[in-house]
Amino acid sequence: MFFTGTRSNCDVTSAFAIARGLADDGGLFVPQEFPAISAGEFSAMTGMDYCQRAALVLGKYLTDYTAGEIRYCVEGAYKGTFDNDLPAPLADIGNNRKMLELWHGPTCAFKDLALQLLPYLLTTALKKNGTGREAVILVATSGDTGKAALAGFAGVKDTRIVVFYPRDGVSDMQKLQMTTQKGENVAVCAIAGNFDDAQNGVKAIFTDAEMKKFLLDNNMDFSSANSINFGRLVPQIVYYVSAYCDLLKDGSLKPGETFNVVVPTGNFGNILAAVYAKKMGVPIKKFICASNKNNVLTDFIRTGTYDRNRQFFTTESPSMDILISSNLERMLHLLCKGDCAQVAALMAELKNAGKYTIGGEMLKELQQEFYGGCCDDETGRKAIAEIFREHNYLCDTHTAVALAVGENYRKETGDDTLQVIASTASAYKFAPAVLKALTDKELPADDFAKLELLAELTGTAVPAPLANLKGDEVRHKKCVEKSEMAEFIRQSLV
Ligand SMILES: *Cc1c(COP(=O)(O)O)cnc(C)c1O
After folding, report:
1. Residue 414 burial by CB count (10 A; 0-12/13-18/19+): exposed, middle or buried?
2. Dist. CA 133 → ligand 1 center (Å)
């Protein structure tokens, strides 16, 4: 199995793609073909645990890793790190809907599924590639990636990690999770800007010749833990495969019966992983792409025009406050049937004019596979209140966007197919907004008192990784301008 770039063709191994993160021309690495999972394999997988399922799926893409290496990676990532050793359990929430709970890991959001595994995949790749250089992981985060990457990479030999987050664009709990991070190889910095500024800054630094030279002089190489790295994507395919196996196992579906997925979307990584799962044989009928008020994807799916020239909103689902969805480039590559020149041209338009339009067969196929919908904070809060009242189920603000859009999809289309809703964060990560949905009470000022109030109101427990932050020292206090990001990196690396 080899990988190619989205903007120009190449032939690289998975270890190369994972170590490098981004192609030299700024494109993303994609598999040259999609390996199939046979009916027999699906059936065998119903009897496997999560690690075994992950090893089977990974083995089909990472053909340059040995079976032993893959086993070492998945067991390191998923044994003993998630509640009850169940990284992606399904919960029934009534009306033919299941929550795919992806927040039982060390940082209470779905990014853990990928970022617990990535350090293992990456350090194994570096050994295989044998450059002997240290890997510098650069991260731009809308909140959850940063902490999940820090938790994954802190203390990992031969790696350094530098995280940038938008100063006013993350929740208090997210900020505290990052600024208290321990470890010799970690650096965390706020920037005066939004997530897109952070992401654009990181992307520019990646391809900057001067920075490259600086790193080489220090025997280092950049790598990426953002969802542009294929090593982030492949672990996400696993949980859609695993969910299908669980649905087969509990009799919710018969082999070949289809289901819909509803995904609260920002950078388009999570929902793209579902598309890749379908390419492998998971019978997904419709991809329901749920956005908050930053509804650039809703418009794209409905009209074929992607236009980032619009107002940016700060919402109660901050991890989806994104106007440039990086992984959409991989979707375009699929829709173009692998025509790299066409993808490169669209990406150039996005860079120069801030927008592009697709039409014809590409748009037709996009609309056949996808439904795009969005909702505002108030609708999200209503969804939180309703699902708690009717089904005693507590969900966070991102998952609430998916719930609401999933309902709209049913109303608009009459399609009552089983919905698997990606539940991407613990409600406790966004306690103030969730509390606002559930009670009119005045909220206590202290962050931890808010967590306790939420526990009291809902009869659920504060997740240990959040409760344990209490009293931790804030170690990372710096905030820089966009133009100062490169300098911050230089200073933190030497
Ligand atoms: C990152 C994130 C999302 C968006 O996922 P993408 O893969 O970027 O589309 C949604 N919800 C939460 C809680 C997240 O952390």
Report:
1. exposed
2. 31
269 lines ligand 1 (CB under 6 A): yes
pLDDT along the chain (494 residues), means of 10: 97 94 91 97 98 98 98 96 97 97 96 96 90 90 89 92 92 91 96 90 90 94 87 97 98 95 96 98 98 98 98 93 94 98 98 97 98 98 98 98 98 98 97 97 94 97 94 95 96 92
- Residue 435, amino acid: L
Residue nearest to atom 14 of ligand 1 (CA): 319
Ligand 1 center from residue 320 Cα (angstroms)? 6
Residue 281: CB within 6 Å of ligand 1?
A: no
| For the CA of 264, the nearest atom of ligand 1 | 10
Report helix angle 360-369 to 296-303, nearest 10. Answer: 120
**Cβ–Cβ under 8 Å, residues 254 and 336:** no
DSSP codes joined into one string, 385-431: HHHHHHH-----HHHHHHHHHHHHHHHHH-----EEEEE-B-GGGGH
Distance from CA of residue 479 to its chain's centroid? 25
- Would the CB of 295 count as within 6 Å of ligand 1? no
- 236 Cα nearest atom in ligand 1: 7
Q: Measured between alpha carbons, how far apart are the two ends of the chain, in Å?
A: 38
488, two tokens: 């911050």
Ligand 1 atom having least distance to the Cα of 227: 7
Strand partners, 306: 356
Identity of the amino acid at 223:
S
Residues in the chain: 494
Residue 492 beta carbon below 6 angstroms from any ligand 1 atom: no
CA distance 354 to 213: 30
Q: Is 370 left (phi over 0), alpha (psi -120 to 50) or beta?
A: beta
102 lines ligand 1 (CB under 6 A): no
Kindly state if the Cβ of 227 falls inside 6 Å of ligand 1. Answer: yes
398 CB near ligand 1 (under 6 Å): yes
Q: How far apart are CA 97 and CA 423, in angstroms?
A: 12
Q: How far, in Å, CA of 117 to CA of 115, rounded?
A: 5
Collapsing DSSP states into helix, strand and coil, what is residue 106? coil
Buried b (16+ CB within 10 A) or exposed e, 345-366: ebbeebeeeebbebeeebbeeb
Relative to beta strand 186-191, strand 159-166 is parallel
Comparing C-alpha atoms, which of 51, 235, 220, 253 is closest to residue 148? 235
pTM (two decimals)? 0.94
Residue 7 · residue 23 · CB < 8 Å? yes
Q: Do the beta carbons of residue 58 and residue 72 sit within 8 Å?
A: no
The pairing of strands 419-423 and 259-264 is parallel
